[in-house]
Amino acid sequence: MKKLFSLVIAAIVVIAFASCGDKGNTPEAVATKYLNHLSKKEFDEAKKIATEETGQMLDMMKSFAGVGGAQEAKEVKIENMKCETTEEASVCKYTNDGKEESLNLVKKEGKWLVDQKKEGAGDETMPAEDTTAVDTTAAVE
Amino acid sequence: MKKIVIVFIILLSVAASLRLFLYAYEHRSMQEQSFYRYTLTEGELKQIQDGDIILRHGYGLVSDMIVEQLDEKYDISHCAIVCKNDSQYMVIHSVSSTLSNVDGVQSQDIRSFIRDSQYNSVIVIRYKPKINKPLSAISRKAQDYLKRQVPFDNAFNIEDSSEFYCTELLWKVILNEYGDDIMEGKNNERKDHLRFDTFLDTTKFDIIINHHSRKKHAKS
């Protein structure tokens, strides 16, 4: 019984130390960092902790923000960050100025990266039925 | 030893209760989301005509950033053209492939489009033509762009008309069909080409449905 008790204590100690390992590389930390970068319109910084697909979305957001003219970065209040995490993926729920929101993350090569879901159109979105090849670089009238 | 076992059992019970609480909370949130499915009433759908325009605030960080960046009277992040055939409704709009499974001009069922909109964020408007031409010309031209698979303009450059962002599609359709430059006088400010309040100018558009007015805390 004493041996079993020692083993349980040893396991708890190992788990506790392991979880203290890289505090910056937890879904909670990465999601908070990402949202803070977005609020400050630091799109290039946000891109460093995002998947390639989300990076393309950030490029588009940067382009929009650039055309929209310089605007003061708004202070946001990210609170109640709670992530439900499996080995390879995490869904983080939080409140942004009191509004409930969520953010998806995936683990790639040991690093947690933000993987923002597509949001523009639903599943029933359809391209044109006519798939005749078109010159998409030409101006359209 | 007995004490340790009791403490261990208590700790296990606390952890199990916490897990159960989180599961119940998650389940309730999902139920709420499906309960608040945003739709137009049958009466509102009957009011909508071929060629009408829908403005909305979508879900997600990008939509919220657009609203924040534009800082307009109504929180709007996207727009689409209604195409109505008999009793079938669909919308044609331009969305980036970074946000949608299709890049550029695409069609979507109107109910699905409304469902993807934030609650009470939809506004339906109708163009007031300066020439005698039916409004169906708007949806016909939009369908033409749909067939041509015009890609999304990720650079938001209105001077390059080989690609369209959402308001650029509406601008181009009205310009080509009615010779009316609804962005006229805004050419020096590129930001103005992105704004949705252009479509709320009552000298050019009629507001048919405005769900923003149902909001408790509407912007003044």
What is the number of strand segments of chain A? Answer: 4
* Shape assignment of chain A: elongated
Order of helices and strands of chain A: HHHHEEEE
SS strand fraction of chain B: 15-25%
What is the makeup of the main sheet of chain A? 4 strands, antiparallel
Helix content of chain B: 25-40%
Q: Write down the Rg of chain B.
A: 23 Å
Number of helices of chain B: 6
What separation lies between the terminal Cα atoms of chain B? Answer: 68 Å
Structure classification of chain A: alpha+beta
Q: Which term fits the overall shape of chain B?
A: elongated
Distance from first to last alpha carbon of chain A: 83 Å
Mean pLDDT score of chain A, rounded? 78
Average pLDDT of chain B: 86
Explain what you see.
The complex is a heterodimer of chains A (141) and B (220). With 141 residues, chain A is of the alpha+beta class. Chain A is built from four helices and four strands; from the N terminus they run H-H-H-H-E-E-E-E. Chain A has helices spanning 2-19, 27-39, 43-47, 52-67, and strands at 78-85, 89-96, 99-108, 111-114. In chain A, strand 2 and strand 3 form a beta hairpin. Chain A is elongated. The N and C termini of chain A lie far apart (83 Å). The model of chain A is unreliable at 16-21 and 130-134 (pLDDT under 50). Chain B has 220 residues and is α+β, with helices and mostly antiparallel strands. Chain B has helices at residues 2-35, 42-47, 61-70, 110-115, 136-148, 166-178, and strands at residues 53-56, 78-85, 88-95, 104-109, 123-127, 205-210. Chain B has a six-stranded antiparallel beta sheet. Chain B is elongated, with a radius of gyration of 23 Å. The N and C termini of chain B lie far apart (68 Å). Chains A and B meet through helix 4 and strand 3 of A and helix 1, helix 3, strand 4, helix 4 and helix 5 of B.
